[in-house]
Amino acid sequence: MKKNILTLLLCSFLLFFIVACNSLSVAEKRGEALSLLDENSAFYLYFSAEKNQDLAKKLIKARIPGISDKDAASIASRISDFYAGIGSEVDFVGQGSFPAIGISRALSEKNGWKKKLFAKVPYYTNSASPLQLSFPKEDLLCASSNVTKILERSLTSTNSLNEKNGWQQWLSSSTSDIAFYVMEPSLWISAFTGKNTGAGCRFIWGELSKSGDKDYSMTLYADVINQRALPAVKAIFTLAFADQGITLNTNGTIVECSIQSISEDFILRLF
Predict the structure, then answer these.
(1) How far from the centroid of its chain's Cα atoms is residue 198's Cα?
(2) For residues 97 and 140, is the Cβ–Cβ distance under 8 A?
(3) Angle CA(183)–CA(176)–CA(44) in degrees, nearest 5?
(4) What are 258's strand-pairing partners?
(5) Secondary structure E strands in 41-150
(6) Model confidence over 41-81: pLDDT tens digits?
(7) Are 221 and 204 in contact (CB under 8 A)?
(8) Which among 6, 115, 198, 217 counts the fewest CB atoms within 10 Å?
(9) Which residues are CB-contacts of 104 (< 8 A; sequence separation ≥ 6)?
């Protein structure tokens, strides 16, 4: 009887330990990636590439000029989770599986890549690519126009989230396939409307989930500077998403937009 009790206690402890470790690994995983992005970016993105392979391939092609469909699909297939900080520079962090043998073969001198070192960590440059690449670990991809800045942050990073950064809290807590946070709304809105009319917002954040094979639904929130700016902000969102089926609600100075159907091509315009 005593042996059975001890066995039960041991199994219970192991189960608790496994669950706790898995929970910690998820938090550490998000914290590691987000802590590597520049804190002064205008726009932040979290993206589950594993669940959205076709969109991931299109996003890679849009951001890396000249890349082939085959290479874009190959990169997308190895990334499980993707993070980006977009501003004066563009930072990408991908988590997945990147074996050293495959990296050496793909990023060879024959293919135009040059291997360099930063604090003993290899990184790769190519005159034909605007991005530098580095793989600090087999499960981590870093890409930027100046990837050494990401590597420098990795040396001092605590892999933990900054509670003062709203974008980190949102991207780490969202359970949707795609989440984003806009620090400079006027730039983001003008990028896909052609009109600089987002000055009435402090921040914009939102998330997208698949609603079909190629379509997504989106929920977007805007923190408006005051009540007087609400009509103008609501008008620009209504205009921007008129063809996608939009519903607007307000709670104080927070505008909530629910968009029923967004195509992959429209998403690429947003990001």
Answers:
(1) 22
(2) no
(3) 20
(4) 219, 247
(5) 43-48, 79-86, 90-96, 113-118, 121-126, 132-137, 140-144
(6) 999 999 888 888 888 888 877 766 566 788 778 878 889 99
(7) yes
(8) 6
(9) none
